[in-house]
Every structure is written in structure tokens, then in C-alpha cells.
């Protein structure tokens, strides 16, 4: 049988594909390879997958239902989906809101419809985000918390994904799991994320933008830990029963918020360069702190993040210097 991975040329998607292929799975990867950030990085990730036994790639926009159907019509044995394709980024949602509805709402609906019409669909795992917690001030963030007050359109689309998935799980008894990712970083990471932005500017001698005058905390989570949680989730679908809807939501985070200035110091050490800091006010749609309560994912999935911020940033820095040639 085959696992469909959407966003296969993305940061998390590439790593998930690698682990699935390493354990002998057949993987159909799809991605639209858009230019939200440099497509060369997406192509470089994809190059690591193409040619591997069991991997097939299709370029397709999940927001185009007809194109999605055509791309997948030859894959009649897909029985699980890891749906990671999304328009990411909080700040960009202020600039191009339609991209978020097209991919994160319409695209998510198209994946749900595909799963609905696939006989024998065993599990659909999809990416949500810690952004759904919005302006919640209670820390750590628990999956039991209400998430009715998004502070960005990006967060609103991710909450919409959770609601649509619950409805489809209820209506069609398809096991589904939403994963709220907390600030993922590591080798092959996204250029719009803080670790990459800071590394690029530090290595080029430019000041790094630090919002809310540095008074921020993030639950930075290393990519290998995130992927371990994704795979554990994929292998443990919610059970179908008459009493419960087969839909679950979990936090995947490091369970340890890091002050942003401490993270910058660790990155300086990893890169061997000092940062010039440009303090800025809080940005619209941003939040002061994120902190994952992982009791549920630890209990149900055996999720246990193992990578310290110092270890993870050293691995990221080594990759970044090799990839960028700096």
C-alpha cells in the first residue's frame, strides 16, 4: 500500500518522506513547488527523494480539485495520507490572504474529499499549528483549551481545518488526526522561520530583526522530534466506534519554551559569529509566547522530544553553512 504525502518538497514533508521510505513504505509525494520562498530549496529537498525506491512525485496544486484527481488517478492503493501542504507563515497572511484560503481551506477540503472517496482509507494525519491558540495567556497550551480567538488569518485557516476534519470524521467515519506543530527548526528548514532568517543575517553581517524588543518565548522543536511524532501518529489512528468520532488533535512541541534572546545566543555559538540585533515592536498577528503541553501525545503516541536547543541549532548551523557555502 501507498502513503500520500502532501507538501513533500516542504521542510517537514521531505523529512517525513525519508523516514517512510527508510522503513520500506511506498510514497506518493505531491507539491506545487510555489515561490512563497526560493523554489530552489524545494527542488534541492525533492532531489533527495527522487530516484529512491518506492517514491513517486507529482507536481500539483491541492487547491485545484480536478488537477488533484488527475494526478492521483493511477494510485489506487493509497490507504493513508500525511497532509502537510499548506500556505504557511503568520506575517505573509497579512499580505496575501487569498493564498491561505485557497490552499489551507479549499485545498484541505479537496484532500478530505479525496479521502472520503478512497475505499479502505485507514488514516488521515494533517498539519495544524500552535498558532490556533491565538492570544491564549494560560501556559502551557493544552489541546483541551478553547481556541476560538485566532489573532491571524493563518491561525483561523488552521482552526478551520480542524473543524472540517472533525465533521468528515463524524460523517464518514474516517480516522483523522490533527497535529499542532510548535516552531519547527532544523536542517532543510524554511527561510521564513527565525532560525534561518537569523543565520542568514548573522553570516552576512546584517542586523537581525527581534520583535517585541526580545521579550518573546518559543517552544522550538527539532525536526527529528517532530517527524517521530508524525510517524507515531500515522501508526496509531483513532479507533472507529459508535460512541466517539474518530478524530484527535495533539500538540507536537518540545515542552520547553526558550527565551528568544537565549535562542539567538545558542545560534551565535553554533555559527561562531556574533549577531547584531535590531529590536522592533510586536508585529500584528504575533504572540508573545508558545509552550506545548504534550501530556496527550506522550500518553497516546509515546511522543518524547529528545533534542536540546543547543544540539538542534548546531545541526542546523552545520547544514546551513554547507548548503549556503558560507
CATH fold-level assignment: Rossmann fold
* Overall pLDDT level: 96
Taking the sheet with the most strands, its summary is: 7 strands, parallel
Structural class: alpha/beta
Distance between the termini: 42 Å
Helix content bin? 25-40%
Number of separate domains: 1
Q: Order of helices and strands, N to C?
A: EHEHEHEHEHEEHEEEHEEHEHH
List keywords for this structure.
single chain, 326 residues, alpha/beta, Rossmann fold, 7-stranded parallel beta sheet, 40% helix
Q: What would your notes on this structure say?
A:
It is a single chain. This protein is 40% helix and 17% strand. With 326 residues, the chain is of the alpha/beta class. It has one domain: Rossmann fold (3-Layer(aba) Sandwich), CATH 3.40.50.720. Strands 3-2-1-4-5-6-11 form a seven-stranded parallel sheet, with helices on both faces. Helix 1 (11-22) crosses helix 7 (223-234), helix 4 (97-116) runs parallel beside helix 5 (153-172) and helix 6 (194-204) packs across helix 8 (260-271). The mean pLDDT is 96.
